[in-house]
Amino acid sequence: MESLVHLGEGFLTVLTPMNLLWVLVGAVLGTAVGVLPGLGSAMAVALLLPVTFSLDPIGAFIMFSGVLFGGLFGDSISGILMNTPGNSTAIAGSIEGHRMAKDGRAAQALATSAIGAFAGGVVASLLVVFFAPSLAELATLFGPAEYLALALFAFVAISAVVSESVLRGLAALVFGLAIALVGIDGISGAARFTGGLPELFDGIDIVVITVGLLALGEVLAVAARRGTKEDTRVLPSTGRLWLSRREFRLALPAWLRGTAIGVPFGIIPVGGSEVPTFLAYGTERRLASRRPDSRFGRGAIQGVAGPEAAGNATAGTAMGALLALGLPTSATAAILLAAFRQYGLQPGPLLFERASELVWALLASFFVGMAVLLVLNLPFAPLWAKLLKVPRHYLYAGISVFAMLGVYATSSKILDLVLVLAIGLLGFLMRRYGLPVAPVLIAVILGPLAETEFRRAMAVSEGDPAVLVSSPISISLYAVLVLGVTGLLFARLRSRRRQKAVV
Questions:
Q1: Of 49, 140, 150, 203, which one has the fewest beta carbons inside 10 Å?
Q2: Which residues pair with 271 in a beta bridge?
Q3: CB 322 within 8 A of CB 329
Q4: Is 330 helix (H, G, I), strand (E, B) or coil?
Q5: Rounded Cα distance, 403 and 123, in Å
């Protein structure tokens, strides 16, 4: 009951003209960036991070909530109409969504996506409202060893899951940890990897890293592909913008199942919504195979409904894990954690006490943002599709200028522009050779935390490493990690044997 009281106070904060404007601006900008192939919701947050520094913290995070969920829906628009998902989290829903579009049912596919995103996001946000304070209380049991175990869990789990090769995922993690080490060591005061430059004593700014790795890295990757044969034809969004009674009956169970699949994955560090969206798609496909009238392969509405609900449900509960535990379970959550730190805030158990007004306003803005997106996207999705017709060389040139201006505006340092270019080149090379980007971001954000907690644990125990596995929480985290990675390796080995057997 106390949670509902706090949520009501959050709604009072959000439902003011200025804060409603920030929700609307965030939803529009998030959708506009998300709809562009290769950008997606994580890059929408990264690009807009410098823009919000002039806002008060509540206004900035209310805007971010609109950007987050708007970007997720924008990812799906380009996947359905162009078969080029804005982000990997929209791939599963685009499989049947694009087939529906080719069958002349693009508008119904977009409507299914919008309603599914709304349903999954609302249910997940309700769970966060009721259970995030309990998670925060649980987090008070964590000491240095437990936080180190949590960080290592996030490192290895994300590195192993988001890449087809575990070695590539771990290589990306090492790059991130190397970047995180730049600057003055907080405990010893020694300068590390600064090259004697005083500008680097404070480390590399997270805005420089996210904009360079995500925005500029993608721009360079797109430029390298210019002139290659790519299917860029955009299908028109034709047909009615609502679902028939029969379509709604088919989609409703898929929305519910997708939400149930996506909710638990938000608090598990698996790098985002890729795993739950494909699980939801596979579930719907298996269930539909028992029906004689299955449309899978020709545009099944359940194949859009399940993954879309799963993706937004995962994003919603990921915010709960971020707020209550300070644990970013995806690249987008890692960038939002950086945004909290820019305002001098540390997500975790104390956030609900030290910044209660901000936390509950942010949670209330989830509901308002998703309602705004539903109103925006059901009738106006065809208009968003017009952005896909902008020539790419103009579009990505504009993104580059916007990104560089944003970075320079935050620090007024020429060195930061050089670093953006260098990190952008690193992002391009990672994409070129199949290294995932998410582990780099997670390592940059959680690397300093892991180092600090490890050294604290060693100091408290006077150098005894047994302290790292001396509590039930840390032992449980390491056990789950070992079991999960072992299961993943066996599954991949089995998949490779099957492929060799087919060949």
A1: 140
A2: 330
A3: yes
A4: strand
A5: 34
Mean per-residue pLDDT, 273-301: 76
SS3 content of the chain, % helix, strand, coil (to 5): 75, 0, 20
- The set of residues, in sequence order, having a beta carbon less than 8 Å from that of 380 and lying 6+ positions away, is none
Tell me the C-alpha distance between 315 and 117, whole Å: 10
301 phi and psi angles, rounded to 5 deg? -65, -30
User: What is the Cα–Cα distance from 135 to 323, expressed in whole angstroms?
Assistant: 9
Alpha-helical (H) ranges within 15-105 are: 17-34, 40-48, 57-82, 91-102
Residue 161 in domain:
yes
Rounded distance, CA 217 to CA 427, Å? 4
Per-residue 3-state assignment (H helix, E strand, C coil) for 139-186: HCCCCHHHHHHHHHHHHHHHHHHCCCCHHHHHHHHHHHHHHHCCEECC
Tens digits of residue pLDDT in 446-492: 788 788 888 888 888 888 888 888 888 889 888 888 887 787 778 77
3-state secondary structure of 171: helix
Range of the domain at 282: 2-227+243-470
Answer for the pair 280, 310: CB distance below 8 angstroms, yes or no.
yes
Identify the DSSP state of 230.
-
In a domain, 165, yes or no: yes
Nearest to 35 by CA among 382, 397, 306, 304: 382
As for how many domains the chain has, the answer is 1
Cα–Cα distance, 174 to 155 (Å, whole number):
10
Tokens of 132: 């995030």
Any domain includes 461: yes
Percent of the chain's residues with pLDDT above 70: 85
d(Cα 315, Cα 329) in Å, to the nearest integer? Answer: 9
Dist. CA 466–CA 380, nearest whole Å: 59
Kindly report the pTM of this predicted structure: 0.67
Task: Please name the amino acid found at residue 113.
Answer: S
* CA-closest candidate to residue 160, choices 482, 474, 479: 482
- Give domain status of residue 362, yes or no: yes
Rounded to 5 degrees, φ, ψ at 492 are -70, -40
d(CA 341, CA 502): 51
DSSP assignment of 381-429 equals HHHHHGGGGS-HHHHHHHHHHHHHHHHHHHH--HHHHHHHHHHHHHHHH
Query: Residue 348, Cβ neighbours under 10 Å: how many?
Result: 21
